[in-house]
Amino acid sequence: MAIVDTGSFTRAAERVNKTQSAVSMHIRRLEEQLGRPLFVKHGRGVRLSDDGERLVDFAREMLRIEASALMQVGQKGLAGHVRLGIPDDYAEPFLPAIMEGFARKHPLVEVSVICEGSLALAERVRNHELDIALVTDCAAIHHVEVVREEPLVWVAHPRFVIPRGEPLPLALGAVTCQWRQVTEAALREAGRDFRITLVSNNFSAIEPMISTRLAMTVLPLGAVREGMKVFGPADGLPDLPESRMGLVFAPPPSSEAMALAEMVRAGVAVHDRTMAKALG
Questions:
Q1: What domain range includes position 175?
Q2: Is the Cβ–Cβ distance between 132 and 260 less than 8 Å?
Q3: pLDDT at residue 48 above 60?
Q4: Ranges assigned E (strand) in 43-199
Q5: Which of 137, 174, 163, 275 is nearest to 216 (CA)?
Q6: Average pLDDT in the 236-243 region?
Q7: Residue 279: what pLDDT?
């Protein structure tokens, strides 16, 4: 797994504290057992072959099962440190329930939280700077465990007036943000002019644009805050695609990371029930 994450036999050897020759020999023996190559050259490094891609999914699942088993057997004494990444769009609606449940069940585990965009969080996980991350750009990230799907919706201040005959003012993430990409594509397909008034991957920077009625944005339905109104086709805006939320782990996942993942899944379920009750 270290070779997959680093794209290099040399960097993988450094990560697992072995010589490059030992790592190469281990892979060569595995390839001989399977009778097919697992890696192919890619630039200065390597990437998985088609057969390697199939095998790595099994390997990740085996690591998760091992970590889950260890967690279930020894979770009463679980202690240590776990690093969680979460987009700030989701921090406010989901993090309180996640942390409340986790702290109650595992009071001796210290949790560090970083809020960034999904692609940046996934990169941190690959570099082992995070143990687990909740991400939303699932289509652009490999090996994601999808835990939630919901509509992406237009949101603005309840008294926001959609301009007629003028470009729609929008506050969105950077050009790499999947939500921005699908939003712009939907508007272009509908023939609706728009202009970007603010760019930020942090919702704390976008929110003032909403509260002052200077722009609209898009959010998954479950991330809509109080004081915001959902707009849609009845307001002359195109439908947006579904948004997916998922988990990514740094291999091998620790018992603390698996325990936190369990609480993330539970927190998502609690949020869904709360949303359903609020919507009637």
A1: 150-242
A2: yes
A3: yes
A4: 45-48, 80-85, 109-114, 132-135, 145-156, 168-172, 194-199
A5: 163
A6: 94
A7: 44
Q: For residue 30, give the CATH number of its domain.
A: 1.10.10.10
Among 78, 111, 137, give the residue marking a domain's end. 78
Residue percentage of the chain with pLDDT more than 70: 81
Tokens of 165: 């005959």
Residues with Cβ within 8 Å of 216's Cβ and at least 6 positions away in sequence, in order, are 154, 155, 156, 160, 162, 168, 169, 170, 171, 210, 231
- The pLDDT value recorded for residue 43 is 75
Distances (CA, A) of 36 to 1, 31, 49, 61, 75: 18, 6, 9, 21, 40
Residue 126 predicted with pLDDT over 60: yes
Give the residue ranges of DSSP H helices in 79-177: 88-105, 118-126
Residue 189, token pair as written in the block: 């397909």
In this structure, what CATH number is given to the domain that contains residue 159? 3.40.190.10
Those residues whose C-beta lies under 8 Å from the C-beta of residue 148, and which sit 6 or more positions away, are 222, 244, 245, 246, 268, 272
> CB–CB of 256/81 below 8 Å?
yes
| Number of domains the chain is built from | 2
Quick one: pLDDT band at residue 23, thresholds 50, 70, 90? low
- The pLDDT > 90 percentage for the chain reads 45
